[in-house]
Amino acid sequence: MKILVLNCGSSSIKYKLFDMDTKEVIAQGGIEKIGLKDSFLKLTLPNGEKKILEKDIPEHTVGVEFILNTLTSAEYGVVKSLEEINAVGHRMVHGGEKFSQSVLLTPEVLEAFTACNDLAPLHNPANLKGVNAISAILPDVPQIGVFDTAFHQTMPKHAYMYAVPYELYEKYGVRRYGFHGTSHRYVSKRVCEFLGIEPEGKKIITCHIGNGGSISAIKDGKCMDTSMGLTPLEGLMMGTRSGDIDGGAVSFIMEKEGLDATGISNLLNKKSGVLGIFGESSDMRDLENAVAAGNERAILAEDMYFYRIKKYIGSYAAALGGVDIIVFTGGVGENQASARWGACEGLEFMGVKLDAEKNKVRGEEMVISTDDSKVKVVVIPTDEELMIASDTMDILKK
Question: What pLDDT band is residue 319 in, cutting at 50, 70 and 90?
Fold first, then answer.
């Protein structure tokens, strides 16, 4: 069975084509700068070589068509015809309270998903463009929606509610939803497979740390709490997002800087975080180099970044009544030893002991805690696309 996974952003489309009989990625790439003059498709060849194909891509349907044509082309094709594609799985960002699991995308489902647009005005409409593009080009191919928010729908009400007037929840759905759910679900499941244990009875804290970052508390395979909220702004300090901030500080900044809602959203989402403190870059590799060079602002930014992760790990250990496993994933979590060390340093009282040598691992599954550590700390590279493809296959088999 061949399944195409699409992740459509406002000006981009990422894709992977899986042969689910072997769970092998047989094609992958992405289109960037949709609607701009210098749009292009960047694909990865089977030997790992990158290839860039330039083309005018004014909107998503043209982009999806370009991807499909490339998959069947004489030079870069991996399938003889589009009839070999059995289904398409879509990353859908915000399903609100309507979706607690992946579903077949019917007109009724898409209507319910569209009703969540207010909660993700940049992401949801872009996801819909991808669905509509496939409907136009491959009308008979089933499409499955896999929601970033679905995994977190098991949170108890006392964990997801905000202490604001209850009618704001009733009228507008103001509550914590959480994101990166597909990644948290994948790594929490995969770590149990890797360690040869069952998720039942286990307390797991998953740390998806990248340019965006979130942490989840998972008990018996179900999410009990997560750090992102109504939007992806809440929680950890991120590349350009502030993470947790006093609401009073937000109104204070708005008054002092003369900012409207759009202005303060732009400041907190795009100009804050690592970039806001360091001042030069939001990339953790640049930050790490600057720290090594003794840059004081870089050192402060790194200290803040690691501290937030540690604080959430500690609070979720309290929420779960202990912790058995801590998982690091995401671009930073999988690859940056100093971030994992900084996040775990000082947690020895909880039974967390890292092995400095094992912690040097990059992008591989590895237990990085010492043999006598009461808490297992594990690196598990995330694979959201495989999770989407697996969900798609499971739904087709029902």
Answer: very high
**Tens digits of residue pLDDT in 128-174:** 999 999 999 999 999 999 999 999 999 999 999 999 999 999 999 99
Do β-strands 143-147 and 325-329 pair in parallel, antiparallel, or remain unpaired?
unpaired
Q: What share of the chain is helix, strand, coil (3-state, %, to 5)?
A: 40, 20, 40
Note whether 77 and 70 are within 8 A (CB).
yes
Residue listed under structure tokens 């901030």: 245
Extract the tokens encoding 215: 């942490």
- Indicate which residues carry an active-site annotation: 148
* Strands (E) located in 197-344: 203-209, 213-219, 222-226, 325-329
Q: Can you say whether residue 372 is alpha, beta or left, with left for phi > 0 and alpha for psi between -120 and 50 degrees? A: alpha
DSSP summary character for residue 95: -
Rounded to two decimals, the pTM is 0.94
Is residue 106 within 8 A of residue 34, CB to CB? The reply is no
